[in-house]
Amino acid sequence: MQQYFHCVTFGEILYDILNDHKEVGGAPFNVAYHLARMGIGTAMITRVGNDENGAGLLAFMQQKHLTTAFVQIDHDHETSTVIASQSDAGEMSYEINEPVAWDFIECSQEAIDVVSKAAWFIFGSLSSRNKVTEKTLLKLLELPVKKVFDINMRPPYVDKTRIEQLLMLSDVVKMNDVEFDTICNWNHIASSEDSLKTIISRYELETLIVTKGSNGAFMYHNGKRYDNAGYKVNVADTIGCGDAFLSGIIYAFINHIPPQEAVDFASKLGAFIATRSGATPYYDKQDVLAISHS
């Protein structure tokens, strides 16, 4: 009998390389890691190469008590690595190689079964850059599960048609402020309070979340807006902060935490991750709650 997982993430797992230092990453993996750290049963559907990096990622998942049952092994394509760099302003940019193993995620019966039994399915747009993984993703999105879309507009992998298709299939969407402006431009509207309502209506969303880096975030949910102005912290790097934020929102929804408290907690989690190197540091919930506005 297959184990039940409350959440399933889908897409890329990889090594981020920053200043010659290698850290495990990939937005869907980061979300899975944080949800699991907070006690939410989480599985990830992904694919790694039959190589040293792939073995390292599998070992890391096992060390962090994340199941590897839904990690496919690719004998033709290598495990993904990404060269990350940080600007003086703290903004991250990424050089993403291709093709890699997660470009070829197959729609296995195991993947269908685990998503069918889950309550939440979390995915991004980057993994759909290749037709093989895109076909698998679209098949899984047909299943009756709450769908959370974390937009990842990583040039040159910004396909308006594909992203809008994924938006139409989603219930909850998270994006950053630059991505929000881009989608507003696609709809020929200015970024404003009214544009939030327009985007939610246009794509038939339940919840829209926009992160603004060090300036905080806001969430539009059930016709109301909830804001957090952010927390001042000593930044190590900002890799994975948005992924941590989304994990905090999902954790709050699962635990029926009120919307404003959800945004506040998610903002604290994102801020805490910024104080550590890499996207997946060790921590517990009390470390996150200790973050304050001071």
From TrEMBL:
Concerning Gene3D superfamilies, the annotation shows: 3.40.1190.20
Taxonomically, the superkingdom here is Bacteria
InterPro entries, A to Z: Carboh/pur_kinase_PfkB_CS (IPR002173), PfkB_Carbo_kinase (IPR050306), PfkB_dom (IPR011611), Ribokinase-like (IPR029056)
Task: Cite the Carbohydrate kinase PfkB domain residue spans from the record.
Answer: 21-281
Alphabetically, the GO molecular function entries are: kinase activity
Q: Which keywords, in A-to-Z order, does the entry hold? A: Kinase, Transferase
Which is a Pfam family this sequence falls into? PfkB
Family membership: Belongs to the carbohydrate kinase PfkB family.
Q: Which protein is depicted? A: Carbohydrate kinase
State the organism of origin.
Answer: Haoranjiania flava
